Amino acid sequence: MELLHQKIKQEGVVLEGGVLKVDTFLNHQVDARLMFEIGQTFGELFAESGVTKIMTIESSGIAPAVMTSLQLQVPMIFARKRKSLTLREDLYTERIYSYTKQEESEVTVSRKFLTPADRVLIIDDFLANGEAALGMARIALQAGAEVAGIGIVIEKSFQPGRGKLLEQGFRVESLARIASLEDGEVTFV
Amino acid sequence: MELLHQKIKQEGVVLEGGVLKVDTFLNHQVDARLMFEIGQTFGELFAESGVTKIMTIESSGIAPAVMTSLQLQVPMIFARKRKSLTLREDLYTERIYSYTKQEESEVTVSRKFLTPADRVLIIDDFLANGEAALGMARIALQAGAEVAGIGIVIEKSFQPGRGKLLEQGFRVESLARIASLEDGEVTFV
Question: Measured between CA atoms, how close is B105 to chain A, in angstroms?
């Protein structure tokens, strides 16, 4: 996606430890027009995939996911993130480890929103180690649903996430694939 | 908003303590088409208000806020919620008390996204006691910005939030105003 590549080049800030900060248009301030185009692009990529639900995790996944949901005309669910939680029977729960934050959180989805008849499109803002996407996929599989695909806004292709997802047979579509952040410079694949 | 009223009537669940659960279309599962129409409605209501920024709080405010942002063609910022935080100079911070969750959280916005030149439209999913909206307004005022208005998806008009906001001179536009949830029944104003 050309517009997304431009935004990353112009506004992305490379921090230590391979972190790319894009808080001017995705993670804190949000460019709604860009999100709309991201939704259109995912909508086209997964138009023939029989998607019945979009799933993301709060908070940064919500804007691209709701725009994709608008295009595909199916409901979006955002999984809730919590530090710890008493087990509740009405929830699907998975633990997700964040390398960036170095903490584990529990992610939950209400059982009533996922059924074995669902084909779930997982949308997320970043793919790095793949923990969040894999956690969402496990929730879909817990529900007996199928994973129709995984749509990522920004993929750090130098980290193992994409490989792990492909290994499990998932289709992965990333709108920007970053080969390297070395020397504070963004290089696309 | 007729469509919103219908959704609340059909899918809203009244819980104890005056809680209205709308997790089928707003707080967990999200109806993107409805969010788009909500964005259009806020866009029309505030078209002449000189809005330069939309502000909301993660997570449930993000979907209606990004759709409003799309209509008004100005950036959206979602304030981050955290349980506790070391003071950081690059952030505006306000404490917000949630009566529903009975806990206080700190809400932060990066200083670089708000300036005295801004006219901020605050968007939120619910208005009850007004704590969240007032907290966001205080952040805007900390930045020297003006509050152009407050747009609420669902207002519990039997709670004091609206009154508090009007008292401070803010314009409040709520798309659904609930007069009562007594006997498990939703009654609109």
Answer: 14
Asked, for residue A104, whether it belongs to a domain, the answer is no
* Residues in chain A whose Cβ is within 8 Å of chain B: 23-25, 28-33, 35-36, 58-59, 62-63, 66-67, 69-70, 73, 75-78, 80, 109-110, 113
Domain range for B135: 2-188
Q: What ipTM score was computed for the predicted complex, to two decimals? A: 0.96
Whether B30 and A75 lie within 8 Å, measured CB to CB? yes
Q: Chain A closest CA to B79's CA: distance in Å?
A: 7
Query: Structurally, how many domains does chain B consist of?
Result: 1
Q: Quick one: CA dihedral A34, A36, A37, A39, positive or negative?
A: positive
Q: For residue B91, is pLDDT > 70?
A: yes
Note whether residue A38 is domain-resident: yes
Burial state string for B124-155 with b = 16 or more CB within 10 A and e = fewer than 16? bbbbbbbbbbbbbbbbbbebebbbbbbbbbbb
pLDDT in tens, A116-140: 999 999 999 999 999 999 999 999 9
Report if residue A139 sits inside a domain.
yes
